Amino acid sequence: MKARLIKDIANSFVSIAKGMWVTVTHWSVLRPSVTELYPEDLPDLPENYRGLPTLPVDPDTGRSGCIACGACARICPEHIITVEMDKSDPKDKKPAKFEINISRCMWCGLCMEVCPTKCLLPGRTFELACYDRDAMVYDLEKLMELGGELPKPESVDAKNKKTEE
Ligand code: SF4
Ligand code: SF4
To answer: Is 75 exposed, middle or buried (0-12, 13-18, 19+ CB in 10 A)?
Structure first.
């Protein structure tokens, strides 16, 4: 009984020494820090980061390239995209309403893949937490704001290629 107690105490000291050794080997000014001070320092997202679908704005027209065809809404497995066409001018196809309920989005990317005008692109935002479910329904304005400026076609192709790799 006594021998076992002594053995347990000895093991405790060995465990502490092992733990301290790991701490000391990682505690060096020469080792680069792996801790990111989020949210003060935002992480560098990889080039092919695939965020939620957004509608970037074409700087030439000030609009997104959406023609309200509804292909994204039809393919979405979660049925969370609502598209309604603006019928005021038959020659100018644009959405009167475009909404995505991102609370159920599974980031599958199918909506972006089928978009004929390639206007639905993955956003680079990840701070989507909120306290209200209704705030997770993003309308056209919000999706355009999150999308930023429409990248040049060649950079979109390069991005898609990288995502496929
Ligand atoms: S990424 Fe997938 S789940 Fe999300 S909106 Fe697009 S199709 Fe729907
Ligand atoms: S598939 Fe593209 S063009 Fe068609 S409604 Fe969706 S975002 Fe607009």
So the answer is: middle
Pocket of ligand 1 (CB under 6 A): 53, 76-78, 80-81, 100, 105-111
Domain ranges (residues) in the chain: 53-164
Q: Model confidence over 9-64: pLDDT tens digits?
A: 999 999 999 999 888 887 766 677 778 889 998 888 898 888 999 999 999 899 99
Q: Which fold has domain 53-164?
A: Alpha-Beta Plaits (3.30.70)
Establish whether residue 137 lines the binding site of ligand 2, counting it when its CB lies within 6 angstroms of any ligand atom.
no
Ligand with smallest separation from the Cα of 72: 2
Please say if the pLDDT value at position 154 is more than 90: no
69 in contact with ligand 2, CB cutoff 6 A: yes
The better pLDDT of the pair 157, 98 is held by 98
Closest residue by CA, ligand 1 atom 6? 111
